[in-house]
Amino acid sequence: MAEKYVGQRVKRTEDPRLIQGLGHYVDDIKLADMLHVAFLRSMYAHARITSIDTSEALHAPGVVAVYTGQDVSSKIGQVPCGAALPDLKVPDHRVLATDKVYFVGHPIAAVVATDRYAARDAIDLIIVDYEELPAVIDVEGAASNSTVIHEHFGDNIAYKLTAGEGDIEAALASADHVVKQRLVHQRLAPIAMEPRGVLARYLPGEKELTLWSSTQIPHLMRTQVAIMLGIPENKLRVIAPEVGGGFGSKLNVYAEEALLGWIAMQLARPVKWIETRRENIQATIHGRGQVGYIEIGCKNDGTITGLRYNVFADMGAYHQLLTPAIPTLTGLMLSGCYKIPAIQMNTTAVFTNKMATDAYRGAGRPEATHVIERAMDMVAAKLKMDPVEVRRRNFPTPEEFPFKTATGLFYDSGNYVGALDKALEMADYSKLRKDQAAARKDGKIIGVGVSTYVEICAIGPSAATPAGGWESATVRVEPTGKVTVLTGASPHGQGQETSFAQIAADALGVDLNDIAVVHGDTAIVQYGIGTFGSRATAVGGTALVLALEELTKKATRFAAHLLEAEPESLQFEDGKFSTDGKSVSIQEVALAAHLARNIPADMDPGLSATRFFEPKNFTFPFGTHIVVSEIDRDTGDVKLTKYVAVDDCGKVINPMLVEGQIHGGIVQSIGQALYEELVYDDQGQLVTGTLMDYAVPKAAMIPWLELDRTETPSPVNPLGVKGVGEAGTIGATPAIVNSIVDALSPFGITHLDMPLRPELLWKIVNNAG
Amino acid sequence: MIPAQFDYIAPTTLDEAVALLSQHADDAKVLAGGHSLIPAMKLRLAQPQLLVDIGRIKGLSYIREEGGQIRIGAMTTHYQIESSARLREICPLLPEAAGQIGDVQVRNKGTIGGSLAHSDPAADWPAAALALDAELRAVSSKGERGIKAADFFVDLFTTALEQGEILSEIRIPIPKARTGQAYLKAAQPASGFAVVGVAVSLVRDAAGKCEAAAVGITGVASKAYRAAAVEKALAGASLDEKMIAAAAAHATDGIDANGDLYASAQYRKHLAAVYARRAITAASR
Ligand SMILES: Cc1cc2nc3c(=O)[nH]c(=O)nc-3n(C[C@H](O)[C@H](O)[C@H](O)COP(=O)(O)OP(=O)(O)OC[C@H]3O[C@@H](n4cnc5c(N)ncnc54)[C@H](O)[C@@H]3O)c2cc1C
To answer: Does the N-terminal or the C-terminal CB of chain A have fewer CB atoms within 10 Å?
Structure first.
């Protein structure tokens, strides 16, 4: 394969339509006769519904129908939870609340009206009588709280799980020091630029339901919604049109998606619901939400002997698709990029009166990385060693791969020292330390933070995933010679329309612009799993490579037939098959294969191939982030004055796309480290329920990001790629926090919980209590 | 995030507008740039039945000098003020404050009149208006009157404007020679509004001492205020580091400070003193 496009900074072919406003998101799709849905949502975190009166709403102008939990609970199945764990408690999860509400934003009733405004107005006319109950908010106290959210479970514990290998007691006993720390991973809102939205259309004659939904997983959703509605899966079509970001929040099957489908079937009219930003913050899944206790043992020379992490994980009131599984990803990644002989994670997953947590960019791995990267710094502080040295001491060498961790994983490949050294050089680390010492003498508060991370991508082997971990691809050369790629991955901003076209263009020797990458429509694309877990290129891209190989083989046989030569004698280069001075282009081959007047007797007409890829392992990208921060003594304001990141995501198809992913991830990390936190008060009211209170970082808050890469190919797939979608949110947060803790170490600080708001830092510096 | 139903009228003269307001009394609200009112309507915190859009009225958007005053039409956008080269020369506090409001989109739509009339306790303009001794002109079907900035801000989202009155113009005495000004702000990272904002306008005598100072502070309390104790400490003082810090320490004297998730009352008071010190220092350069 000649690499004309792969590895190049090809501009995203998606962008011209997007920046001109010509893309079609769910809300841009308008159907004749379309009705609009608005939801009445609970204003209480925990309450019994004693009565609902919808009569006035039903008579309001423009209102066509009002549905409550009573109307639908026997008609629509449960909102699905795909995670399987021993003794997992799965609450009854109806699409609308019936007798109780469990969180602020819990949907209670749906109003269908001729326009959005009429639907929203009628919401205010529904009268609900509540009997308020105490709210379970504190994560650590939830397990023993006398208020039980799902009463028949007896307590608020969703599951308890112990994971890890090695004799942790012995490991900690053998340590010269054991460092302990409580640590909070605050709840975050994913805040995709485009909120969720669903449009449903039912054709009663054809008995066909179509759902347009802003989702990362159209095929999985088709299966699940068909089950929820009790309709044949082959009569349901799910289309993910342009999707304006997901970050995991659209890797789910939500109540609203099934409900809209059901309403369209009742009324035989198209119905649309577009989430407001307020609903988005209240009732789209949240991320993180763990409170844990670290115990890490080390020898005097810095060697880590063992790590224990006892964690309370906040599920929220219900399980969404993967809610209970997220902390298990934390458990898998606790070893970080270090040789730790014994690791134990004890999870207590609890129900609280809040929206469900689930996969938010990183999904359990940022938590793990934060735990181990903070722990390594605390070990360094304890031993008065340089944090870089402690890390170096515990790295496996490149020769030790595949590297087995005490969490049961085999890391595929890595050169941790390579990425670290490159980053140290870029940042001029030893000079940074000298400058820091000098600046401290001048009274400045400056810190240097390092994080060396590894993450888990290319999710994943089917055995390790709830609904298939493979991916699919079809390649067709159309009669006119244009190439169509159908990918089961459902990209939603990552740029695979470009990168997959690069792969296909090189494989077939055709022009990039002759390739269309089609995705996100279950009626057009073969079944696929979707885009999440940094899998689309490593798994979906590999399926594409396999399909391209098979298609090329077929084309070679057609070409040999046309050229009256042996297939083995043919050269395939720049889109041409040639032998002995004769040649035929792949476009000519495709036409001949379609016309089928002169093809080998044992071959089917047409030129296409479909392949699936089942990965044998995950992939493990890694890297080093270095951050310099300065704290304003007077105000506690933090300025990130230097940001260096060296990321290794294996082989790179398009450096610009990789950089874009890293940029975005780091920005979200800066958000978590410094600004973002979903705060519920004691009554379970969401205090940070709008973007006026919930601080998503803006461009001016972001320092210049100096990025570079090392490239350690993955042996798991023929492309050698690993994945990069989540690296930024995984590697960056601890580097930022480490930097600020380092800055404040002269004040006796060894740990701080996020977000690191100025007031907190000001108090530390000024001892103001 | 979907407003309740409302009617909309866009009169083309101020007379028509005030007539509409007096006719509809309680039910009507003036719409200027819409960048405070429409968000409030989307959250249904405001549910006016009629919006009287004053954006189509000619002659409400201008910056001019007249009678020893700078006169700014109420519909002048933040951006127009930010980008005025003349103001940068004669009254830099105005463009400096304007440039720190929200983002470009907000500055392109939001108006100085709208912001002052809204009296958000964390808005920037009230601090500037106070520090500049602005006079706010109000027009109603009964006629026109002037209100001193010091009397204008009554409380949280409450001004001295009466039912049916439209704020038409902001008048600011042209600053004297040897005037130094600055606006500095600690922005809330989510909203961009002021956690603390300090506007300073001070006049130095020939020897470089502070002849008089005006300090307006926003974000700290339920309404913007003049920091009288700071001003008093500055009057006649030499503007050295120590004097400035001592004066700035009075930034919240007698003030009941707000506290919230982002900044406690104690921290806000501290920030007010820090920003007052920095703003006075900047203004005295
Ligand atoms: C994202 C965002 C960020 C922002 N950040 C900041 C910030 O950092 N600092 C800041 O100060 N502001 C900020 N704002 C508010 C912005 O400056 C608004 O433009 C301003 O507060 C209101 O001006 P307006 O012209 O938009 O008024 P409108 O929203 O149209 O009106 C506001 C209120 O004043 C009344 N009103 C308007 N004009 C008149 C008049 N001439 N006479 C009588 N009553 C009138 C209206 O009836 C209404 O009650 C922000 C707004 C947004 C949306």
So the answer is: C
